Each structure stands twice: as structure tokens, then as C-alpha cells.
Amino acid sequence: MSSDLVSGPDLGGGYLHQLSIDRTDDRTTFTYHAQDGGADAGGPPIGALDAFGYAHPPTACQFGGPRCWHRRFLLPFAELPRVRQTYNRSRFVMEAMLRQRYAGGPVPVEGALREVVGRVAPAFAREGIPWYVGGSTAARLLGAAVEPHDLDLGTDRAGVDRLGALLAEYLIEPVAPTDRPGGGIVHGGRAFVGTLQQGMRVEWAVPLDPVPAAGGADAEWASVGAVHLLSVTFEGTELRVSRPEYALVRAAGRGATDRQDALAALVRRIGPEPGLLDQLLARSGLAADRADALRRAVQGPVGAGAKLS
Questions:
Q1: pTM of the full predicted structure?
Q2: Which residues, other chains included, contact 180 with Cβ-Cβ below 8 Å and sequence gap of 6+?
């Protein structure tokens, strides 16, 4: 196997970035590399890259050393021009993404939603492709007092590729098989919808590995036909959104207390779906006392404002 550097070192967000390819007879792996660039890169960077799906390799990287961050994609070699384009946009928006994640930088949620919905909703309706909004953005659309860092979309295999085409100029990762820490091998993509200085990270994927039985709230992305959805209207367009129980269990697992309280209040207002929270908690790995506390937190009268799909 040959390993070659095809771009870099390049600057972005306090990191030194490089793009490499590893070629065998039947496949090409493209790798984004990022390492703390210090003063030479306008750094040090204000945060780590694991929030964006990067991971440290098990051994020292020949390009970035022992603390190099990696994102890897499996694509034909002919896709090099497209990968180079997404790599460059990724490093160009890295500063904005880091500030949103670690320094309270504003996330233009409504603007990004308007752009995504305007492109995706009519195209997917014509083509019969199922899709929905998930995660904290779904909860916000349902009325939760949360500030999303990103926009998560659920769809099927065909929808993953179509989203890549509809959001092509915003892509920061190619649509490809890739490894996502904690999520196994997926076929997915990422975009930063907006300008280089201000936008919102958008993510979508379908699993290629079997979803583990202990998937917990990650079952939100297991299969578009199995996810429990509600309907909301955003600026005149009806959208499908995942139920907030998914985000609630995920927030509890991460210890995000403020977000957990807001999500529990939302579930109380619209009314919990019988059995869904118990299913998610049973697979979540949360201690029994914390799971019981979540069940108590969502008890209350059934409210209005959303309809079951």
C-alpha cells in the first residue's frame, strides 16, 4: 500500500491540515489530518476535534505525528478533486465551527434550516425520498428551549447521496463510507451551510455496520422507517422531526443537565410516547436511579402542539 500527501500543510482554526491518500489494488482511503499548529497556524486552537468526528490514530501518523487528528473516507481515486474541495472548505470553516462549539459563537439555526429545507423538501417530495430532522434541532422546532450546535438529518441510503448533491457547495466531508467514533461505519456526509465565517454544521448518515443492541438514543439514526416521528411546520413547510425522547436520553448520557431539563419539559408538554422512553433507557447504559429520574421528569399532562406520525 502506498501513502501519499496530496495537500498541505494548510492552515485553519489553529490547526495544520493535510490531505493524504492510501492506495491498494481495489480501494483508496482519503484521510484528513489535523495537528495543533501553535503560533505558526494562528493558534493554539481553542478546542479539540473529537466534537466533529475526528479521532487519534492508534499509532503515530507519518504526516502529523503522535497527536494527529484523523477523518477517513473510502472512495475511488477518481474522486480526488471532489475530496480536495471538501477538505479545503473544512479547514476554511474550522475557526467558525470551533468558536460555535467551544466559545459560544452564534449558530444561525433559522437561516441554515431555511436554506436546507428550501433545497431538500421540494426535491425529496418529488422523488419520494423519506427524511426528517433529528437531534436538538428537532427538539427546538417542537418548542424546546435549546440552542443546537448542528443540524442532524435522517434519511435512507438514496437520500444520503441526494443530500450530498443538493448541498454540494457546502460539503466539508465527501459523501462516503467513513468511520464515526461511537457510531461504527456509516455512509454519510457533513456540510457547513452558510458562509465561511457564519453557518451551521449539517450531518447525515445511514449505518453500514449493524446497530448495536446498546444503541440507546442512537437508534434515532438506525432506520428511517423505524424512528418515532412528529410533524411540525417551519415557515409554511411541514417537516418530520424525531421525538424528543431520543435527544433526552442522549443528553442524560452526556451529563448535559441544562439541556436535559429543557427536553424533559418538552416531553411533558407534548406527552411521552408509551414505551419509547423505556426502550431507549433499557439500551442506554444509564444507572437505574438516573433512568428512574428521567421517567419521573417526563410525567405530566398530555399537551398540544404536535401530532404523532
A1: 0.92
A2: 53, 186, 188, 205
